[in-house]
TrEMBL record:
PANTHER family the UniProt entry points to: MITOCHONDRIAL BASIC AMINO ACIDS TRANSPORTER-RELATED (PTHR45624), SOLUTE CARRIER FAMILY 25 MEMBER 48 (PTHR45624:SF7)
GO cellular component terms, semicolon-separated: mitochondrial inner membrane
Lineage: Eukaryota, Metazoa, Chordata, Craniata, Vertebrata
Topological type in the membrane: Multi-pass membrane protein
Protein name stated in the entry: Solute carrier family 25 member 48
Keyword Transcription: no
Locations listed in the record: Mitochondrion inner membrane
A molecular function GO annotation: transmembrane transporter activity
Keywords attached to this entry: Membrane, Mitochondrion, Mitochondrion inner membrane, Repeat, Transmembrane, Transmembrane helix, Transport
UniProt-listed InterPro entries: MCP, MCP_dom_sf, MCP_transmembrane, Mitochondrial_Carrier
Amino acid sequence: MGNFQMDDFVAGCLGGASSVIVGHPLDTVKARLQVGKGYGSTLNCIFTIYRNEHVAGFYKGMSFPLASISVYNSVVFGVFSNTQRFISEHWNRSPGNSPYLLDLTIASMLTGFISVGIGGPVDLVKIRLQMQTEPLISEIKSIKDKSPFHQNPTVYKGPIHCLTSIIKQDGFVGMYRGAGAMILRDVPGYCLYFIPYTYLCEWLTEDCHTAPSASSVWIAGGIAGAISWGTATPMDVVKSRLQADGVHSEKYKGVTDCIVQSYNKEGLKVFFRGISVNTMRGVPMSAAMFLTYELSLKAMKKAKVESDT
C-alpha cells in the first residue's frame, strides 16, 4: 500500500480508549433496554441499575473492551485512513481536493467488514457481562432450579472466564454469535460515521485554516456519532439479543428468526428500543474519539518534524 502510515493505528487506539471511558455507562443502559424487560423508559432503567447495582453497575463489562480497544480501534481508524489514502493515490486524486464520496464509501464499507472480525468477540463478552445480572424474571421463574442463574446470579466471573466459557460451550464459532447482524449494522454504520464526519469537518473549517479546529472536530464527531448510532439501532437491537442469547437459555436460530420473534412478541417498536440512549451516547463517545484521534495525529506529526530538524 503506497503511503501506509502506522500513526493512524496508534491514534485510533487512543481515541477508542477515550470513547469507551466516556460512553460505557450509557452503553450498559442501552443493552439493558434492548434485551431486558420491565424498565419502561431510559430514566427508569438508569435509576433501576443505580438502585440495584450502584455506580459499578454502569461499568459492567468495561475492562474487556477497554483492554482490547487498542486492537479494535487501531484497526478501524488504520484501515479506513490507509484504504482511503490508497484509493486516492491509485486513482490519482488531487491531494488538495475534497475527499471523493466513492473513496470514503469503499473505505468505510471495508472497515465495517474487517471490524467485525475483532469487534464480534469483544462485543459478545461485553454484552454477556452487562446482561448477566439482568434477572429476566419471567423466564427464570419458568425454569426454576434447572437454571444455573437461579442458583447463582453471576454466570461469568470476568471477561476471560466469559470467553473461555463461550468457547467451551459453543466452540470458536461461538465467539461470533450475532456476527451477521453486526455486519448488517457496521457496514452501513461506518459509512454514516466517517462520511458525515469528513464533510462536516471540511464545512466547519474556515478557509484560512488547513486543518479543522478542536471545536470543529468535537462538533463533527458528535453529529456523526449521533447519525451513525441512531440509524444503526434496529440492527443493534438484533445483534444485542443474539449475543445475550445463551446466558440463560437459547431462543433464536439466527438473524431472521430473531427479527421475526421480536416483531411477533413486541411489534415494530422493539427495533427502536434504546434509540434515544444510542443517539445520546453516540455524541460524547464519537466526539471524544475523533478529538483524541486528531490531537494524537497532530502530536505525532509535530514530534516527527522536531526529531527531523
